[in-house]
Specification:
The complex is a heterodimer of chains A (371) and B (250). Helix content of chain A is 16%, strand content 45%. Chain A is α/β, with parallel strands linked by helices and 371 residues long. Chain A has a 17-stranded mixed sheet that branches. Mean pLDDT of chain A is 90; it is low at 1-13. By secondary structure, chain B is an alpha/beta fold. Chain B is globular and about 55 Å long. The chains are: A alpha/beta (371), B alpha/beta (250). The structure holds adenosine-5'-triphosphate (ATP) and magnesium ion.
């Protein structure tokens, strides 16, 4: 395990993984060096109220990685050191930094909202969620503003615990990196949705070993990219125990000269009988110069498993567009309707009101902004 | 009688292949016309050209709809002006619910015409009433447009859209094919109920007399190789049923 000193050294030298070092690679991370060299506060950070729900529930605000107690109602969330550490090169940079911890023994009935605003420069922020046996919780995390937000999330779900989480990549510019790891107990469920509907580049690394039987990991994501934007998503799930389930449902929408890359690998060890894995990757190209890369991989060593994968990249269906237009819907609205339906497919959490309505809002926001 | 549709010497091609070869047709307000003709004659092509499907190029001739130049309008403008195409093969649209789609369509048309939009509540009332009249399970309103619908369900769904949108001119391309005997009667009733009015007209494209038993046409035309080669009254369809296209296709 990396020590705090090591991690600081790493950060000072900013040894970012290059496409060369990585087994899977599309984007270069050079831009991060520039962002890391910038000062905070070069840009006004956006108004938090436009990102909060209207609920009276726990809400936490971080500005450039620093907790803002006067603007927060932390509820059960604690601020401070996070014991979980990451081995991931980007995740390591958060080791030893102050972050937040959610440890609960009883259901948290209200969703917890966490908002990270950036004003330029970089921040590295770890978090840890530990749910006791049978406990369920809901989390909405929103990234807004500018700069580089580097987040490490550790999840530790007890037996039969359930966490639903939505991550909103809503930064205007800059870079958002999310490193997600953890441990799922027997029959625990982790449902995680990501939506990227704004201008920042992003990179998501999710890596879980399913080591307790019956654990379920559901990952859904919609990534909407424009101009020269890039989203890189890599998910590695290893089924180790029996009877685990994993789903990856990712939708990439690329316009202009943007690139979205999706790499999903599911490994099923010989011990992981009765595994159920499904990868569904779809890309929609809205311009001739846009790119969607996909790499779905299944590696199966057990014999009694149910695993499927599908990957397809296409354009908007002209037949469907004409059908909508022939009913009086104008071409822009017809396009928006098809885009929205495409993006909606990736929503994976149970239609919990806040997660779903937030997701819906963000997809509409993108479509409506597209003019 | 004022003209609903006036087509003069219409020539059109797809992929550089000439399909319509100088077609003439006039439909008056309040009239029901049927077009029959062998497979590949250009019937669906005519319906697509009139509704503005991309890929169909008009090389000559004109089409006027209630006095306006139809061919100069965008597909959605034609719909807002009152044109409706019942598709021979209705398109499946995953992820968009039937109800959402229909309401978007109805409100888009209203907006283009400068009318007030319908609220969700008002709309559901209208849609449920029309669904019931067509024997459509209300659950189907929630399902994605045409996805997993049977052939007959898709055709009923087209009729439901027509009933909600209340067009001036409906071009119904083989709406009768794929329907069972009861569905044919129900669909025919809805065509008569919605469209048989002095200010509305229908162009039925069909291969079979049985639809015309229920929806009695004022005129019947035979389309062969991109042209109307013969026109007559309702009796022409009976004659074709008896004798086939015979010399007409020669
Ligand atoms: N994209 C295309 N490229 C080339 N030929 C086409 C294309 N679309 C249609 N056609 C041809 O145009 C002709 C007319 O087709 P259309 O669908 O209009 O016939 P139809 O009269 O509706 O026939 P049916 O009774 O079988 O429905 C056919 O020969 C068809 O193969
Ligand atoms: Mg046809």
């Amino acid at each position: 395990m990396t020590t705090v000193e090591d991690s600081h050294k790493t950060k000072a030298a900013l040894t970012l993984p290059s496409p060369h070092d990585e087994e899977w690679h599309w984007s270069r991370l050079n831009a991060l060096e520039i962002l890391a060299g910038e000062e905070h506060g070069q840009f006004p950070s956006p108004n938090p109220s436009s990102f909060w729900s209207g609920l009276t529930n726990p809400k936490l605000l971080f500005v450039d990685g620093v907790y803002q107690p006067e603007a927060s109602h932390p509820g059960p969330v604690k601020i401070g050191n996070v014991s979980a550490k990451s081995q991931n090169p980007l995740g390591q940079m958060t080791n030893g930094e102050r972050g937040w911890t959610l440890e609960i023994e009883e259901d948290c009935t209200q969703p917890i909202e966490i908002l990270y605003l950036g004003s330029g420069g970089a921040y590295h922020l770890p978090s840890s969620v530990r749910l006791a046996k049978n406990v369920s919780a809901t989390l909405v995390e929103t990234y807004a503003g500018r700069g580089w937000g580097n987040r490490f999330s550790y999840f530790d779900l007890g037996e039969n615990a359930q966490l639903q989480r939505l991550s909103r990549l809503s930064c205007e510019s800059g870079f958002t990196s999310l490193i997600e790891e953890g441990r799922l107990g027997e029959n625990a469920h982790l449902l995680t949705d990501w939506i990227g509907n704004k201008g920042a580049d992003s990179r998501i690394d999710q890596r879980f070993d399913l080591t307790a039987s019956g654990a379920e990991l559901m990952s859904g994501g919609a990534f909407l990219a424009r101009e020269k934007q890039r989203h890189d998503i890599m998910i590695i799930t290893r089924h180790v125990a029996e009877g685990c389930r994993s789903r990856q449902k990712l939708r990439a929408l690329a316009d202009d000269e943007s690139t979205v890359s999706l790499a999903v690998r599911t490994e099923v060890a010989a011990s992981a009988q009765k595994s159920d894995g499904e990868q569904s990757l779809k890309g929609l190209l809205l311009s001739r110069n846009a790119t969607v890369n996909m790499k779905p991989e299944l590696e199966i060593y057990a014999d009694d498993v149910k695993c499927a994968h599908g990957a397809a990249v296409g354009e908007l269906d002209p037949q469907a567009l004409f059908y909508l237009e022939s009913r009086g819907i104008d071409p822009e609205e017809a396009k928006d309707l098809l885009i929205q339906s495409f993006v909606m497919e990736a929503f994976i959490s149970t239609p919990d009101s806040l997660l779903y309505s937030t997701w819906l809002h963000d997809t509409e926001h993108w479509a409506g902004e597209k003019e | 009688m004022s003209k609903m549709l006036e087509i003069r010497n219409l020539r059109a091609e797809v992929d550089n292949k000439q399909i319509l070869k100088g077609l003439n047709l006039e439909i008056g307000a309040g009239e029901i016309h049927a077009i029959m003709g062998p497979n590949g004659a250009g019937k669906s092509t005519l319906s697509y050209v009139l509704s503005g499907k991309p890929g169909y190029t008009v090389t000559d001739g004109s089409a006027r709809f209630m006095g306006k130049d139809l061919l100069a309008m965008e597909p959605h403008e034609r719909a807002a002006a009152g044109l409706f195409l019942g598709f021979q093969y209705p398109v499946e649209i995953a992820g968009v619910s039937n109800l959402h789609f229909l309401r978007a369509a109805a409100n888009a048309q209203r907006k283009t015409r400068g009318e007030e939009e319908l609220s969700a509540g008002e709309f559901i009332k209208i849609a449920s009433k029309e669904a019931k009249a067509l024997g459509i399970n209300p659950e189907m309103l929630k399902r994605p447009v045409n996805v997993g619908f049977s052939g007959g369900e898709k055709k009923r769904n087209e009729m439901m859209q027509m009933a909600v949108l209340q067009p001036k001119l409906a071009i119904l391309d083989e709406t009768d094919s794929g329907l069972d005997i009861d569905a044919l009667r129900i669909v025919s009733e809805s065509i008569n109920r919605v469209m048989r009015r002095p200010d509305r007209s229908v162009l039925l494209i069909t291969h079979y007399q049985r639809l015309l038993d229920h929806v009695k046409p004022d005129f019947v035309h035979v389309l062969v190789k991109g042209q109307i080669v013969r026109s007559g009254g309702a009796e022409l369809a009976l004659e074709l049923e008896r004798e086939g296209y015979g010399e007409l296709v020669a």
